[in-house]
Amino acid sequence: MIPQAFELALQHHQAGRLAHAEALYRQILSAQPNHAGAMHFLGVIAHQAGRHDRAVDLIRQSIVLQPNNPAAYSNLGEAWRKMGRLDEAVTAFRHALELKPDSPGAHNNLGNALREQGQFDESIAACLRALELDPGFPEAHLNLGNAFREQGRLDEAIAAYRHACQLKPASPEASYNLGIALKQAGKLDESITAYRRALELKPDCLEARNNLGNALWERGQLDEAVAAFHRALELQPDVPETLNNLGNVLRERGQIEEAIAAYRRALQARPDSSSFHSNLVFALQFHPDHDGPMISAEHQRWNRQFSDPLRQLAPPHANHRDPDRPLRVGYVSPDFREHPVGRYLAPLFERHDRERFEILCYSGTVRSDGMTARLRALTGKWRSTVGISDVRMAEMIREDDVDILVDLSLHTAGNRLPVFARKPAPVQVAWLGYPGGAGLPGIDYRLTDSHMEPPREASPLSPESPHNPECDSGPIESRHSPKGDGGAWSAEEPVRLPDCWCCYDPAGESPEVHALPALSSGGVTFGSLNNFAKVHEGVLARWARVLEAVKGSRLVMLCPEGSARERVRGFFGARGIGTERMEFVGCVPRWDYLQLHQRIDLCLDPFPCNGMTTTCDALWMGVPVLTLPGDMPVSRAGLSLLSTVGLEEFATSSEEDYVLLAVDLATDLPRLANLRATLRPRMQSSPLMDAPRFARNVEAAYRKMWERWSLGNSPARND
Questions:
Q1: C-alpha–C-alpha distance, residues 660 and 421, integer Å
Q2: For residue 295, is it within any domain?
Q3: Total structural domains in the chain?
């Protein structure tokens, strides 16, 4: 009777009737306690029900009774894997393969566990072996795709996922993972199609709906993205990933208050997410009512959660303390690509003194391009950190004997601040993510300049600046100094570079500068091509006043399609400014973006979060920029850039002055025309584009940081 009962239990089990199968397995064990098969499959049911610890107990008992059962070892490995005990899982899978080397299932399971351990090459080898044994094994194609994707081999990942979809068209997992790889490869339309296919197969798949929203966001379909996230929240309220994603899109729609609220809800649901908290810190930079102390308080909350527990765990550094030896400088970023970070790095990398400084890059870049290749060719060592854990990445940096480690992200997307919290290098520096600092005690310094952060007292590390009549810091401090202590809001010590905190490179061919458009159009055109997240109602109100005062003027502005544009139209319409005076543009390829400046006479900088790259690009295209400096570095980027090219008079002292100067400039077309014709050569002859000079300034700062550490001196702290 027991063989028949066991056969019936297996039939129920295979048909998914788990309750019937479990009841029969238990009856068999009551009659025959040492029945290895019933014990094994009762453990499998426990595993399927999520009771993995119980599954491990039962399957191990079955192995004692039947030690040569490869399926039991393979299922034991899966239970261990689900518990996160990957070493035990790998051992179990390898034991299964010792017993049955030609088992495609065990090879596939081993590949899955190895991938979760971060052993991608070994994982790929195991999956490929499974497919040699069974080319029509869809799960092995799926796991192979996962390993390729996490290693950044996107074309191979997409091919593997497509095989899985062909072999198992009704698999939502295959379509979902295909969507992820397509999105990472920048194939957004195909990605959206794949996610929608996954949702057809499994409408309640929260992950697919979340990722659909993210793809729509990147595609610029922000309203559709918000709708996708709201639908996901209807299916399952307060899911932290959904709330975080919703915050990202609301920020891009210019709804900063709502974005901050979404990030805070995400953190309430998952307080241990450093990336969610970084998104909140980043969003605060855009809010007009959040000042330095408020952002500092959020920095400190981030540090208490994610930095302080790691600070005492960092072992001493063994780097040789010779102050004059060549230094190994590591740069960390997910943006070694066609991105503002990549464009600002290129002139520095090209001019670095290779005899005195070795460049290492720790790249989280998923989608490489021509800029990636350009930067990689300029480095001594290039390390991909895609899919690498924070712990392992910190170990890599120590193994490479990095002397100075430079964070290029701060709290922007893809940052590796938890790595910096582990202090893998003796000297750590923040730069470029946005003007300011990460507020992280593990980062010793931040690169800045005296325009963004006027010194309150002499810094032991800021190099002396040679006198430059176009970049004289005297009048800047008297006219545009921030209120209070400009450095009290961040933990890192400011190191003020002599000229400017960055060096501009237009990165490739650019359109020629045309004549001032107002000379032929019959009216002045103002413009803002900044990230719309920087444009709040206070900024719009000042722009509206400018348009009201300058008859016949127009405004060209970057604004996402949909409700954001309707909101702006409504705002201006309520002030009597018709839609015919507004021109909205979206994100376009770089050449087309630069060409947009041919229709703009004067750019209006947002505040408190100024433009950075957009200001440089406007000046390069002959368009002056009007800015309003504030107290924080993010609100003084415009002042820094304009002062560096000798146009400090375009930095205003109040919101009223901002409006009045815009109106005054709009009535002085000869001045605008002259600036149009001379701005590009002015930039080229200024420190803003003097790459050799900038590289020497940065290297001098690095050398002083290193000398200070080599002599055993720690930087002063503001935290």
A1: 46
A2: no
A3: 3
